[in-house]
Design brief:
This protein is mostly helical and 173 residues long. It has a single domain, classed as Four Helix Bundle (Hemerythrin (Met), subunit A). Helix content is 56%, strand content 5%. It has seven helices and two strands; from the N terminus they run ααααααββα. It has a two-stranded antiparallel ribbon with strand order 1-2. Helix 1 runs parallel beside helix 7, helix 3 packs parallel to helix 4 and helix 4 runs antiparallel to helix 7. The radius of gyration is 18 Å and the shape is globular.
Length: 173
């Protein structure tokens, strides 16, 4: 499926509400569960998404619009969220994410991107040459991947309690 801005926006606009529905009102047990000791918890994922809104999607889009591939993106710190989430409630984090995403989408809209601009080149510090279309499509896939990650992490918490249904519960495999 070819990237189309209108279809991508369907996901990007709804991600804050999806995460709100998944996480608001959950106990600390659910919010801090992990598949392994070094895996992200649902709160960590939310922090990671907030950090990405501030340092990745729109800043890298701006780099491609202004400098194209003459300036590499700043490396993204996957763990740069830790100070952002320290001491905050889930409600506050969900609000932070919704506000940050709203600001990102407003900035994206202000660019008035054309389909021809999706071919603009960029330079990822690890992956090398990319296009603006690759970047925007990845933003959508990134959201969907982390929504899935949260659901899988939460399901994993009850993996040993499913009994014989474990064999049929594909999210646990």
């Amino acid at each position: 499926m070819q990237f189309r801005m209108t279809e991508g926006l369907e996901v990007l606009q709804q991600t804050p509400a999806v995460l709100d529905a998944l996480l608001r009102g959950k106990s600390q047990t659910w919010l801090n569960t992990r598949n392994t000791a070094d895996a992200f918890s649902p709160v960590d994922v939310l922090g990671h998404l907030i950090h990405g809104e501030r340092t990745d999607w729109i800043p890298r889009t701006r780099i491609m619009l202004v400098h194209q591939d003459r300036q590499a993106f700043e490396p993204f710190d996957r763990f740069g969220f830790q100070d952002l989430i320290a001491g905050k409630t889930i409600d506050a984090l969900l609000e932070d994410f919704a506000q940050a995403r709203h600001q990102s989408l407003a900035a994206l809209h202000s660019f008035k991107l054309t389909e021809a601009q999706f071919a603009l080149p960029g330079l990822h510090p690890e992956l090398g040459p990319v296009t603006l279309g690759n970047h925007l499509a990845n933003w959508v896939v990134h959201d969907l991947g982390h929504i899935t990650q949260i659901a899988k992490t939460m399901a994993w918490a009850y993996r040993d309690e499913t009994g014989p249904w474990f064999a049929y519960t594909t999210i646990l495999h």
